[in-house]
Amino acid sequence: MAGTTLVTTAPSPAPTPRGRPRGTRERPSGWYLAPALAFFGFFAVLPMGLVVYLSFTDWNGFGFPQPSGAANWERLVADGEARDALLLTLLFMVVTWAVQTPIALLIGVWAAGRQRNRAVLSSLFFLPLLLSTAAIALLWASVLDPNFGVTQALPFLDRFNFLGDTDIVIYTVVWVVSWQYVPFHTLLYQGAARQIPHSLYEAATIDGAGRYRQFFTITLPLLKYTVITSSVLMIVGSFTTFDTILILTGGGPGTTTRIAPLYMYITGFSGFEFGYASAIAVLLLVLGAGLSLFVTRVTGFRAMQSQQEGL
Amino acid sequence: MTATALPTRGASAAPVPPRPRGRRRRERPNLLAGLLSLVWLVLVAVPLYYLVSGSLRTRQDYLSTNPLVPPSDPTLENYRTVFEGGFPTYLLNTVVVTLATVAIVVGLTLPGAYAIARNGGRFVQRGFSLLLVGLAIPAQAAIIPVYLMITQMRMYDTLLAVILPTAAFAMPVALLVMVNSLRDIPGELYEAQTLDGAGPFAVLRHLVLPLAKPAITTVSVFTSLTAWNGFLFPLVLTQSEDTRVLTLGLWDFQGQFGTNVPGLLAAVTLSVVPIFVLYLIGRRYLLSGLTAGFGK
Predict the structure, then answer these.
(1) Is residue A4 over pLDDT 60?
(2) CB of A178 within 8 A of CB of A96?
(3) Does residue A25 belong to any structural domain of this protein?
(4) pLDDT of the residue at B14
(5) Where along chain B do its domains lie?
(6) Is B26–A201 a contact, with Cβ atoms under 8 angstroms apart?
(7) Which stretches of sequence are listed as region Disordered (chain B) (predicted)?
(8) Cα dist. B29→A211, B26, B116 in Å?
(9) CB-based burial of residue A102 (10 Å sphere; 0-12 exposed, 13-18 middle, 19+ buried)?
């Protein structure tokens, strides 16, 4: 079964350049990139253009989108709910970054060391990486259940309703997302910390620098680009956090966890206002790409590029 | 000056997981980070323990006892219930989606990366930049037009509808990893092959393909995880039970099972088993695959 589907799907969208004439020159022709480019262009770049067009239309999901001028954009500017969703997204982004970065940095640097128990411990705390977002959200919904959850069996924690209290539910979401992604960022930091030449620490020790001095003068500066990479991924990730919240809280209670991607999804696929949802999507696209560009540029875009090339 | 030393070190270590470097680093234990790691370990272990132990409980046991106490009378009944539901179908769908996505991504990025690494033409480099922009683009922003395109192409509610966009959005990272790996192949090897009269395609097949195996593995692992865990595209582009994938199936179980939490926990546990087995077999590939392409 699996095999037959594979055979029919793989070659159809863009055949590999098997039939290309064998060039007489030694270098491969640029056409070798064409299938990948065409495929990516059709399913990823074209939609980016299309979503801008759709934001100027009225479309209920059936039939064809009807041009509606700037109506969606005028509505978006005046929409208090959209503004709230956007502010909530920013809050979520900042808090998620602030929670994950120190934890991942410290554990990553620690795990970069070389002792036996570290290997075992690190492979244990990477386990959340194996669970899908859906599985993690369902697991935590059950762990935090106000009646039968694990938190209800623990002292102190049992006084909180993590998923029902409008004041703390957004931080609950931050926690679940962090639980899922801290191991990943820890891996990034662990890999980077291992690349730091040992001799630097030896020299610092001879100069009499203590551990914390060494951390702030050697480790942290040399991990600068990892911090950037990791931060960019977290920022883009915050804009795409969607399935966790949909499963965990559905955006509620009320609208307390309805961040912008979820607002877009609900507007489009539950409210059937695809034109208006497209306007929100454009906003997400611009903000997401803009923020990650901003972060990379302000903190040394060129340098990161050359690092990528050195990979 | 130290910063310039980093990329060269990275270059040699990139395709292979980091190997032991240096002997003991520091004598004194790092208390703060070590303590934090232990706290984190507990925070990871407790929910996972709850997941597995909860899936072995009867419903009465679940409702009446402390969730942290081991089940008094472990049962596999929940697993049977899950397996008699739609689970096998969802699993098969997920496997098909995953394999097809990997085939497309590897099949397209390998020749693409070969062109990028060996052809400095403007078309190729612009194309590479375009694909790299994809790294910063949230897939959500594209979901409405993708939905429109898929319905117009009459592919709605098919597995292909999930496979194609998933592959497209997995492509930038995959290409980045492939390009970085192929750039490490010494130019002399290409020249030697060319002197022997091999055309670009023969070079791709007999030189690039074998040497890119670590990168192909990494890309396959990364793409598999993306496809296996995909939620948004299946949610929006499929509908019927026949095309439901595992992640959506789990979500559906939540509604369907109502208060049968042990059943839900069994379903979640089962959904992790295939990845967990993979993890046990190829831990280093999996871990390097997860962080592939993301800097030093």
Answers:
(1) no
(2) yes
(3) no
(4) 41
(5) 98-259
(6) yes
(7) 1-25
(8) 10, 7, 46
(9) exposed
Domain CATH code at residue A248? 1.10.3720.10
For A114, list phi and psi in degrees, rounded to 5. -125, 75
Q: Which chain B residue's Cα is nearest to A284?
A: B141
Would the CB atoms of B168 and A293 count as touching at under 8 Å?
A: no
Query: Chain A residue with minimal CA distance to B64?
Result: A148
Backbone angles phi, psi at A57, to 5 degrees: -130, 170
CATH number of B98-259: 1.10.3720.10
The residues near A178 (Cβ < 8 Å, ≥ 6 apart) are: A96, A99, A100, A103
Sign of CA dihedral A297, A298, A302, A307: negative
Its pTM stands at: 0.84
CA angle A94, A98, A101 (to 5 degrees): 125
Q: Measuring CA to CA, how many Å separate B57 from each of B41, B62, B74, B76, B271?
A: 24, 6, 6, 8, 18
Q: Are A310 and B142 inside 8 Å of each other by CB?
A: no
Q: Token pair 């089940």 is at which residue?
A: B71
Q: Encode pLDDT of A274-294 as tens digits.
A: 999 999 999 998 988 888 777
CA B91 – CA B267 distance, rounded (Å) = 11
H or E stretch at A67: strand A66-67
Report the residue of A27, A105, A182, A235 to disrupt the B interface, i.e. the one with the largest count of B CBs within 10 Å.
A27
Stretch A70-86: mean pLDDT: 95
Report how far residue B174's alpha carbon sits from residue A175's, in angstroms, rounded to the nearest whole number.
29
Distance, in Å, from the CA atom of A276 to the CA atom of A40, rounded to the nearest integer, reads 26
Q: How far is CA B217 from CA B163, B212, B220, in A?
A: 19, 9, 5
Number of domains within chain A: 1
In a domain, A146, yes or no: no
Query: At which residue do the structure tokens 């029919």 appear?
Result: A8
Residue A248 belongs to domain spanning: 89-130+172-302
Q: For the CA atoms of chain B, what is the radius of gyration?
A: 23
Please, which pLDDT band fits residue B28 given cuts at 50, 70 and 90? low
Would you say A167 and A109 are in contact if contact means Cβ atoms under 8 Å apart? no
Q: What region does A139 belong to: left with phi over 0, alpha with psi -120 to 50, or beta? A: alpha
